[in-house]
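Structure tokens please, single chain.
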Amino acid sequence: MSEAPNIIDLIFGVTKPEPAVAPAPRPALTVVGSGYAAAALERECGAVAQAGEGTRNDTLNKAAFSLGQLVAGGALERGEVEAGLLAAARSAGLTEKESRATIASGLKAGAEHPRGVPEPRQRPQEAHTLVNPRTGEVLPDLPQMPSAADVEAFWAARPALTTIRDMARARRTGPWAVLGCALAHVVTCVPEQVVLPPLVGGHGSLNLFIGLVGHSGQGKGAAEAAATAAIDVGDYDAVPLGSGEGLVHAYVKHTRDGLERVRRACLFKVTEIDTLTATAQRKGATVMPILRSAWSGELLGFQNADVSRRVFVPAHTYRATLIAGIQPARADALLGDSDGGTPQRFVWLPVADPDAPETKPAEPAPIAWSMPRFSADPFGLSPLTLTPTIAAVVDAERLAALRGSGGGISGHDTLARVKLAAALALLDGRLAVTDDDWHLAGVVHAVNLHTREGVAAVLRNARSERTRAQGAAEAERALVVQQRIEEASLRRVGAWVLRRLEERGPATAGDLRRALPGRDRQHLEVVLDDLESRHRISQSAGSDGRTRYVREA
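Here you go.
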């Protein structure tokens, strides 16, 4: 009976030039922090095994460098790392001689930058949860942030990610925000023909929107500057975004000879998201639907009765990225467009850094990024390759949507994660999106969801506070009105009593009550006590033994 095809053959559909060597079972690690170290070893070996032709040796070298750091830090045994990487490299199709040389070189380079297993730390509550500042109540139902170990493993996974984190710390800004800006810069420089494969409907766009979440003065501008310093992508066009028409005209313009293409790629900038949403709320504004179309790489443009004024940008003939500053208290209008799908298209990343070191580290050397070579298909497009794992997740979500579940604020979340995985692969200089890219994108996506839902929770809490305050104010106003009505009624009944006693002489309380209009009888007792205390009236016993009220002179 023939052997079943291994996963590498199923993914790439090719026969390896040499028989695949199955990795020997690894003994359980006995070193401190074995869970973290073993996961790192498994992840790196998996990346090597899945590497495509033309990227295998480079992937092996990066994996050896990363694991060499852990070996030098005492978290892994060199022999186990060499055995695991060699088996993965042979499985990917590399020769034993070539593999051993690359592994030895990578381990040696990694040993010059040792790192150990990160110690889990208890962060202050504010770093994990959002709290009502008035009551101290913890706001519920927020997606979990990645653990400290997962975050440390993320930044250490690749040299580019380590550089981004270190540059952010050196420039005193948030690593997640710097990462978002760096990914936006990279994607801006990726030709518009490079797309996602048609997993659902047509091809998907790589166009990426980043939201930098933080209060005024927390350093949203500093994050983009740090990203530019960390990853040198070369020149690109960046323009402020003010309207839907402005976005379209960034790519085409009218001339005497007709439509002229201005550019094919553009990074749009929005200093504060509330200025954009204010524009979107004007009558006839098109910025939100145009943004949604741009994120998907769809046809952009405007129909007009005057043919000379019609403007169109065909699908997948432009690259659009966006970086927007989002102050949590001003994000209501953006989150309010969740039915349209706008907030789900943003990757929400915090500008803050709760783990910022006391001593500012030195700046790392910048990394020069260049676009990997690609070739277009007969349709002029160059789809990236995705693993079966990623395709299966996208298909499962689409199936759920077809059956009527899903949607809401979580709509487009999976596609956003696919875009992040693709951006991370491109940052790493690859056109093949691996399961390792998918895993790393999951960490970023968890931060995205936690940040977005945290902002939503803050806004819900603020609305609740406003509602309570409005209710209290309305109740207070109603009380004041009632008091004024009461006072007017008491003054009216008091004047009536004095006038009645002056005109008709002494009268009993019963006489006065029967003579009063029904609406005022409830006030009589209070009025009589008040007038008597101020010596405006007095009580006198009559010959019949009944007490009467008399008007004082």
